[in-house]
Amino acid sequence: MSRKPKDGHPGETIVPPLVNVQPGPPAAAPLSAEAWLAAIVENSDDAIISKSVDGIITSWNKSAEQLFGFVASEAIDQPITIIVPPHLLEEEDTIISSIRAGERIEHFETVRRRKDGTLVDVSLTASPVRDKNGTIIGASKIVRDISERKRLVERQDLLLREMNHRVKNLFAVVNSLVSMREKTATSVSALADDLRGRIRALAAAHSLTMPATDSASQSSVLVSLFALIQAIFTAHQDKDNERIVVRGSDIQVSASALTSLAMLFHEFVTNSIKYGALSTIAGHIEVEIKNEDGLLLEWVEIGGPRIHMPAGPSGFGSRLERLTIESMNGSISRDWKPEGLSLALRIPSQSLLAK
């Protein structure tokens, strides 16, 4: 028997179109709360450790393995003291006592020991673990490696103290320069020009220590003596860098020795500009650096005017030079040749490397 559908011709039976239905993947079974917690603990960037109230390790995640070097099979069922330095064992007793009393320990900074015996700075948080009846059965510890942060803080503190020391020294040097120079200056202009030149020399020496900010301490950084000479003399070079020629063996000096050496080299070049080879177009200077249990600097001026050994009392520059060399336990000798000055400066190694 046929029936007439609402849409269609009499006698027709309408068959719904076939639909190609592909079976999907089976739905994943939902994780239990315990499984979620286990996954979080295992994949945490922090070391997460649990222990009994007697201090026996009961769980040990991947980050704990990476931080301390013990794999889980080596750590579980062992006393927590395997990661505690001997001198801090009493500290662990105090932590256990706090846990038994139901107290939580927040971000306690201390030191722990790796499998290989090396020490690591850590921050730890310890919380009591209770059973369903509320009885404390152990503790959960979160341990974070803070050694890099501690190094950064220590380095920052060291750099700040070093900077404070250097600023005080520079102020003392400038104050000394003003006090000494004002007694011999013939005019305000002469005083200003002289001080500007010396401060520029100090600035050049100071700028060489700037790369030391990437080091643990500026005071431990060694700087090239050639680099200092170039910084002091660069304003007086010609385009071919032949007006002042430096040869020999480069020597590394400590950052703290730079100020004194900068003052000496500035004094040498200033005198040459005023009276020696650099006072003429054709004049030049040859500098030889030798490492002979310290610095031996040989300075020879060529092509300048005829010179004579100066007579009369020494000026400010000479006094400053003498005091600087004495402070470095060094010595200087000069040969006043008519064709140009020759000098030899000696500074012992211990003064060049002094912190």
Task: Summarize the topology.
Layout: H1 33-42, E1 47-52, E2 57-60, H2 62-68, H3 72-75, H4 89-100, E3 105-113, E4 119-130, E5 136-145, H5 147-181, H6 188-207, E6 222-224, H7 225-233, E7 244-248, E8 252-254, H8 255-275, E9 284-291, E10 294-302, H9 316-327, E11 331-337, E12 340-348, H10 349-352
Helix pairs in contact: 5-6, 6-8, 7-8, 8-9
Number of helices: 10
Strand order of the largest sheet: 2-1-5-4-3
Helix content percent band = 25-40%
- Which sequence of SSEs, written as H and E, runs from N to C? HEEHHHEEEHHEHEEHEEHEEH
User: Quick one: biggest sheet?
Assistant: 5 strands, antiparallel
Beta-strand percent range: 15-25%
Number of beta-strand segments: 12
Low-confidence stretches: 1-6, 8-15, 212-219
| Radius of gyration, whole Å | 39 Å
Which class of secondary structure composition applies to the elements? Answer: alpha+beta
Kindly report how far apart the N and C termini lie. 113 Å
Give the overall form: rod-shaped
Give the averaged pLDDT, no decimals: 80
Q: How would you portray this structure in words?
A:
- With 355 residues, the chain is of the alpha+beta class.
- It is built from ten helices and twelve strands.
- It has helices at 33-42, 62-68, 72-75, 89-100, 147-181, 188-207, 225-233, 255-275, 316-327, 349-352; strands at 47-52, 57-60, 105-113, 119-130, 136-145, 222-224, 244-248, 252-254, 284-291, 294-302, 331-337, 340-348.
- Helix 5 (147-181) packs antiparallel against helix 6 (188-207), helix 6 crosses helix 8 and helix 8 (255-275) packs antiparallel against helix 9.
